Amino acid sequence: MIQAPPAQLGQRLQDVDTPALILELGAFEKNQKTLFGLVKKRVRVRPHAKTHKCPEVAKRQIALGAVGMCCQKVSEAEAMVDGGITDVLV
Q1: What Rg value do the Cα atoms of the chain yield, rounded?
Q2: 16/7 Cα distance (integer angstroms)
Q3: Dihedrals phi, psi of 88, to nearest 5 degrees
Q4: Going along the chain, which residue ranges are E strands?
Q5: What share of the chain is helix, strand, coil (3-state, %, to 5)?
Q6: CA gap 83, 56 in Å, rounded
Q7: Is 22 exposed, middle or buried (0-12, 13-18, 19+ CB in 10 A)?
Q8: 41: number of CA atoms within 13 Å, CB side?
Q9: Could you tell me which of 31, 56, 36, 34 has the C-alpha nearest to residue 46?
Q10: Per residue in 35-88, pLDDT tens?
Q11: How many whole angstroms separate alpha carbon 25 and alpha carbon 39?
Q12: Torsions phi, psi for 46 (to 5 deg)
């Protein structure tokens, strides 16, 4: 089941349909780059999807160096796979 996004870029915050994941993209990317820079070639990072439950966020984490995503529940894993994530550990 594909849902329409709860918000569009530039939309007023009070008009955003909830629940919605809203990120300060600059801070997110800086934090991810810091994490992956610190652990580079020392450990394999597999973030837990429970924190964001968002395949687009997972794709960004994988692009920066994560080996895949970790999920607690099969339904979370299904959402990741449906969103294009191919390496999911339940």
Answers
A1: 14
A2: 5
A3: -125, 130
A4: 69-70, 88-89
A5: 45, 5, 50
A6: 7
A7: exposed
A8: 0
A9: 36
A10: 989 998 789 999 999 888 999 999 999 998 999 999 999 999 999 999 999 999
A11: 21
A12: -130, 90
